[in-house]
Amino acid sequence: MEKYRTTIRISAIAALALGTSTAALNAQPRTNMLHQWAQGSEAAAIATLGEMFEAAGGVWEQTAISGHTSNTLAKLRSDVVSGNAPAAVQLKGPEIAEWDETGRTANLDDLAAAEGWDAVVAPELISVMKPNGHWVAAPMNIHRVNWLYSSKAILDELGLAVPTTWAEFNAACETVIAAGKTCIAHGAADWSDATTFDSVVYGMDIDLYRAAFQEADTEAMRSQGMIDAFAQLRRMVGYMDDGINGRSWEQSMTMTMEGEAAFFLMGDWTVASANLAGYVEGVDYLCNQTPVDWGGTGYILNADSVVFFQQSDPEYVEGQQLLAQIIMSPEFQVTFNVAKGSIPSRTDVDLSVGGFTQCQQDSLRDLKASVAEGTLVRSMAHNMTVLQKYRGAMMEVITEFVADDSVTPEEAAERLAEAVEAQM
Amino acid sequence: MRWLTDHTPQLVLIPTIAVTIAYVILFSVWTLWMSVSNSTLLPDTTYAGFGEYVRLWTSRRWTVAYQNLFLFGSLYVIGSLVVGTLLAILIDQRVKFESVWRTIFLYPLAISFIVTGTVWRWIFHPQTGVELALHDLGWISARFDWITDRDFALYVVVFTGIWHASGFAMALILAGLRSVDGDLVKAAQIDGASMPRTYRRVILPTIWPIFLAVAVVLLQFAIKTYDLVVALTQGGPGVATTVPAIVVYDLMFQRGQIAQGAAAAVMILVALALVLIPYALYTGWRARQQGDHHG
Amino acid sequence: MAEAAHIEFNPLATGSRRRQLTSKTIIYLCLTGFALMYLLPVVIIFLNTLRPLDAIVREGFIAWPESVTFSHWAEAWGSFCIGGTCEGVSRFYQNSLMMAVPATILSTAIGLVNGYILSKWRFKGANFIFGVVTLGVFLPAQMTLLPWAFVLGNLGLSNTISGLVLIHTIQGLSFTTLFCRNYFINIPDDLIKAARIDGAGFWRIFRRIILPLSPPILIVTVIWQFTGIWNEFLFGTVFTSGANQPITSAIVAFSGSGTGERHYNVEAAAVLMSAIPPLIIYLVGGKYFVRGLTQGAVK
């Protein structure tokens, strides 16, 4: 009884607050964005979003949850359960569709139509942002996952060229190891092991990648192609040093930048961190696509996006419109992506101005080429393809394979299929 | 009025009983229900059967985590008790600056698991810690990489856990040692028992209920262990140091499999029951025994 | 009484003088060895707060500082960027105090009364209730997150410090009731009986007999609760955000491998600062903690 009375009282207060706020003359668009970019350059990038939002007359609040991604998602879930769905959340890939199915996301169709998003957003992203034919998310960027960073010092010293196939890569590594250096800089974690494996499977057999990592086809996971891919991964673990466990990806990056390790396989956020740390493209490191055995332009795509949840407070509804508008504006896309190492999600932005580096410009060039060649895929490791339950199950197998030498490629392929089947 | 005074205890207890029962029982029942429901991204109350338990047990990560719970739990509890006893006995030798020693051994309990895990990771990791320091000193071949070795990493977690908790065990056991009847000890000495023998045969056996009490408190830490592992090894290498609480959290929140996460939480409670029910039976038995003595 | 008897017992009084000396040496060597290992982590964090970042990155965390600066402490306190706001840890301190102090007092006070009832006014079902309360000690926090979210949402306490106080009070009740009940059970029932014959009621007995005997266990529960609540991060992270976060949740960022560049020295200073209140509690209260335990907190 007492509880009900409290609830009634609280709703009365809420209604009152609502009434006064709508009645107020200078109602302001407000937002509170939940995201996980709490530290360093990413926090700085998101701060620019806040500044632009405030400059446009909005009241900006953010909830930055650091540490594990679980923390952000735990926060989101508990907010939704407690009836306070956040106005804007950083969510990606299949999660957008999943949350859309709960019927709690806000529809951005009117804004999208007015701003012409369908015409400017990269086609590969549109299906992700419009899971049921309606815009529910605004894409902030396009990350390329299949970058191979090479230490220019080591390549020059050993007279090596940047490898373009996995056979060349292995040969280069043999040379590097023989010269007493580490070939691959790596920090083991489920996501980084899977990032490497993304490139391996994709580079060896693009159809296998599509079947196994985009369609979660377990027969493909059991195929000889997957066994070969695991064998290549095992080989590559041998090209890493002993300290991969517990090493962060920035530490691995530094190894390649400092000329301690020849290669580093990682997404383009590396570009932002490396440049911020004072390393120079073309001088300290080179960026090329990870090897492909099928001789074309490869592009594994990852994108960050913001999903909007339905709000009752008109100020927050207005804030969502304003925030989505700013996120999609060319000005924000340039500032944000220059800082983050990625490229804009709009294809109509000119990267030759505004401070984009050569690697970033190459990224856009290759994106367009791979779209033309029909080789563009989304990243499994970065949660752009299958549901989290399959992705999580696959990453467990991959990271365990990297950690445990005694698992054979055959066993790994079988385990991969079984782990996914168990979650079906 | 008379009734009111007679029932004061019950009346006073009612509010807290209500919240505690709501908290413990309702939350547990809710979790149990979720584990057999259709919940995925958000809680859903439709019944779906026990399929999630089956799925959970086919996951290698979960079986490893469950084994780790028992291995880590027992080593951590026993280790903390052994180290705690040793420290308590050392301090019990009428050492000088007793309070200084005590404070040094006790303070880790004030440090959060997150901080404990982070700092020990720095120390244990070959690239930042002891191994690097030894290399810098010129001992190039020195190796100290347990934390990155899948066969040893769990013992690093055990060690760190013991570092954190043994001071607590020490404090309670020391308290116990001080409460032992002096006559008993004198009698043993008169019989010519040596010091280690006196402790082993006379003193420690009389305070063993304290060991049990400490074990229960530590067990509670062991079962809930989450932040320590996350900060220390993130469950790795591979899945070597994963513990159930991490799996529960990942399933429920990272992967949007609330039902399976709830099933995992229920399994934690089952593990707990496996340990606590014998303990409860024992305390009940002991209480009856003592009752007989007094009566 | 037990202590008086204890003093007469000197374990080292056995054996010759020479042997006594060797034993003493061994004892102090052991104690020193353990003490070094126990102090090592805090010493390492402290030294790293003084070192420049490039030295840490180059030489790792275990190295003697070549140059010393205290500027990282000032930065950590007032201007370091955490969660997108560059005001250091200072702004989170108040939240943690506002959370830990009331929750500690409430859970201890209620636990005291609960323990008193469950040990001295036993009634039918008391054991069952005690069992349920004890079970509460073991519930994993991850499991209770969503139910708590539901409760807080319905009470209108989402993203408030009051919400955290509520959670920590209720979860803390299990511990405090357990501690207090096990302590009071050692107080002779005759004392209570005598008081009742004299006509003393429930509260009078509590005030006149139980409270005066409680300080030892009060200290134990207060220390336990305060450090536990202060160091908890999961509820703080999930149920509060931005300026309402307690300090432990705010600094969790430093434990993960974030994707930005790391300022290990400033982070170390922030971590150490966040640990100061519980450390003070232990340094000041540690003596009473052990004394409280000595007087039968656990039996």
Description:
The complex is a heterotrimer of chains A (424), B (295) and C (299). Chain A folds into two domains: 2-143 and 304-356, Periplasmic binding protein-like II (D-Maltodextrin-Binding Protein, domain 2, 3-Layer(aba) Sandwich), CATH 3.40.190; 144-301 and 359-422, 3-Layer(aba) Sandwich (D-Maltodextrin-Binding Protein, domain 2). Chain A is built from 20 helices and twelve strands. Chain A has helices spanning 2-23, 40-55, 69-81, 94-101, 109-115, 117-120, 123-129, 152-158, 166-178, 190-204, 206-214, 218-222, 224-238, 249-257, 269-276, 314-328, 330-340, 358-373, 388-403, 409-422, and strands at 30-35, 59-64, 88-91, 137-139, 143-144, 147-151, 182-185, 261-266, 285-289, 299-302, 305-308, 376-378. In chain B, 74% of the residues lie in helices and 0% in strands. In chain B, helix 2 packs antiparallel against helix 14 (258-294), helix 4 packs antiparallel against helix 11 (208-224) and helix 8 (153-178) packs antiparallel against helix 11. Chain B is flat, with a radius of gyration of 24 Å. By secondary structure, chain C is mainly alpha-helical. Chain C folds into two domains: 2-69, no CATH class; 90-297, MetI-like (MetI-like fold), CATH 1.10.3720.10. Chain C is 74% helix and 0% strand. In chain C, helix 2 crosses helix 14, helix 5 (90-120) packs across helix 11 and helix 8 (161-184) runs antiparallel to helix 11 (215-231). Mean pLDDT of chain C is 82; it is low at 1-9. The chains are: A alpha/beta (424), B mainly alpha (295), C mainly alpha (299). The interface between A and B is large, with 43 and 35 residues.
